[in-house]
Amino acid sequence: MNTGLYELPLVFFTVLAQSAVGAWLVFTFVLLNEKNTKSRTYIHKVMLVILALLGIGFIASIMHLGLPIRAFNSLNRVGSSMMSNEIAAGAIFFALAGFYWLIAILGKMPVSLGNVWRIVTALIGILFMYVMNQVYHITSIPTWNNALTSWSFYLTVVLGGLTLSYALLIPNKQREYQLQHLPSLFAIGVSLVAIVAIYQGFNLHNIHSAIQNAADLVPNYAIMTVTRLCLLSIVAFLLFRVKNIGLLGISVLLTLVAEGIGRVLFYGLHMTYGMAIGG
């Protein structure tokens, strides 16, 4: 488990970036159909929260690299390195989202151009998520190089994005859009997380290197997974029952903590065929 804790900057980066992209996708869809000017102004104001979380995630990633200059050096291998592609795609997404917000909040963004801009940014965000997932599909790390990694990463996009966007958009008193389906989608996402976690738990004993079994890397897997699922279940209950902004804020925090627990387990499972890190 030590590996998962050592990689806390990456835990923050991946979970926050995935949640921000997921929320941007929801905001993009909502703004396509929202005609009320006051409502659109509100949406653009709270969009700053998405950018702030994304910014915190990138700061965490720089902490992992040690020096900001290393991030720029990594861009030298764009096209040949998934990590370089991840940094490039993330930077482009952040820049497009940031400039969109700035122009929109100043009231200078035409509606038609804004629609195109958001969609293009969303597509870059999806590319960012795909590349981030591919970074961890390393053939020498059997605990990562499987479909469960993809499921884990993309489900964080869903859960984090839905909770964050719901908490930000529901308090809008001028809204014409409807969000009644988001809690149901979140509940479906939690069910999928449970299936993936249980399946992974049963299969850890089948993955081993020459010197260690994968299950030994995460001895607290069951306890941490149950805690994670309990937190997500509480969030699902809150989304169905609560419209209070304070409790919705707590639901966002609980979701991020729950997915953070899952990500700590993920990094704790780092194990190569020849050696293992953790214990």
From TrEMBL:
Q: Which GO terms describe its molecular function?
A: dimethyl sulfoxide reductase activity
Q: Give the source lineage, highest ranks first.
A: Bacteria, Pseudomonadati, Pseudomonadota, Gammaproteobacteria, Pasteurellales
What organism is the protein native to?
Haemophilus haemolyticus M19501
> Which Gene Ontology cellular component terms are annotated?
dimethyl sulfoxide reductase complex; plasma membrane
UniProt keywords (A-Z) are: Membrane, Transmembrane, Transmembrane helix
PANTHER family under this entry? ANAEROBIC DIMETHYL SULFOXIDE REDUCTASE CHAIN YNFH (PTHR38095)
Q: What is this protein called?
A: Anaerobic dimethyl sulfoxide reductase chain C
| Domain of life of the source | Bacteria
Q: Which GO terms describe its biological process?
A: anaerobic electron transport chain
Q: Where are the transmembrane segments?
A: 12-34, 46-67, 87-107, 119-139, 151-170, 182-201, 221-240, 247-269
